[in-house]
Amino acid sequence: MESSSDENDIENSQDQEGKLYVVDSLNNLNEHCMMHSHHPVWEYREDTESPGCLMMQSSLRCQSWFFVTSIITLIVSLALVSFVIILIVHTGDKIDELSRKIVLERKSIGDLVKFNYMVLQHLNQTELMDNIENIITV
Asked: Where are the transmembrane segments (predicted)?
């Protein structure tokens, strides 16, 4: 039991030392950037000697490009969605107009069929009358 608690203490102290080292390194990097940079960190300078500053500038530049790309992508997708919606509405209007024309043509065809039937009936009656007249005259 005592050996495991000693190992835990050693691991905890090493972990804390590692954390302190990281914090100290970040503080040194920040101081180094502030000492060598007279311009804001996001401004690109070729004479910057600190790799940490270049990394921060590159990171900010990447973030800004990502943001601009995201905005452009959103605008393009919004334009495409609105175009599709307009096409759907336009197509719906055309389908309604076509269905109205089909209904009107169906009514017209029905009227033509009735008219044809009436003409055929009239012709049949006139033929019958002609036949009757021919029989009477004979």
From this structure: 65-89
Q: Is residue 99 situated within a structural domain?
A: yes
- Residue 102 belongs to some domain of the structure: yes
Cα 83 from chain centre:
11
Sign of the Cα pseudo-torsion (51, 56, 58, 59, in order): positive
Q: State the pLDDT confidence band at 75, using cuts at 50, 70 and 90.
A: very high
Contact 58, 42 (CB under 8 A): no
- 80 belongs to a structural domain: yes
pLDDT on residue 120: 86
Print burial letters for 34-52: b (CB count within 10 Å at least 16), e (below 16): eeebeeebeeeeeebebeb
Question: Per the domain annotation, does 118 fall within a domain?
Answer: yes
